[in-house]
């Protein structure tokens, strides 16, 4: 597999690992999403310094308001964080 294919497979596997915790394997509950963030993105949480920011981030992930994070919402988060970390100016 190419590097990008490997990255995509890891994204899917990571989401599935944390979504497997409760009865709905297609979404992350708030607790599952928090565990994923704490385990897979510890540097991000440490940089936040404010526990309220983590709650705000979790709430912001739920775009459709169903109190769960589906795979599409998860991918948007990862893409947004990747863009923020890439730190290159965008062309207009």
UniProtKB/TrEMBL annotation:
InterPro entries: EF-hand-dom_pair, EF_hand_dom, S-100_dom, S100/CaBP7/8-like_CS, S100_Ca-bd_sub. The keyword Mitochondrion does not apply. Pfam families: S_100. Keywords: Calcium, Metal-binding, Repeat. The keyword Calcium applies. One of its GO terms (molecular function) is calcium ion binding. One of its GO terms (cellular component) is extracellular exosome. Residues 49-84 form the EF-hand domain. One of its GO terms (biological process) is endothelial cell migration. It comes from the Eukaryota. This is S100 calcium binding protein P. It comes from Dicentrarchus labrax. The gene is LOC127349521.
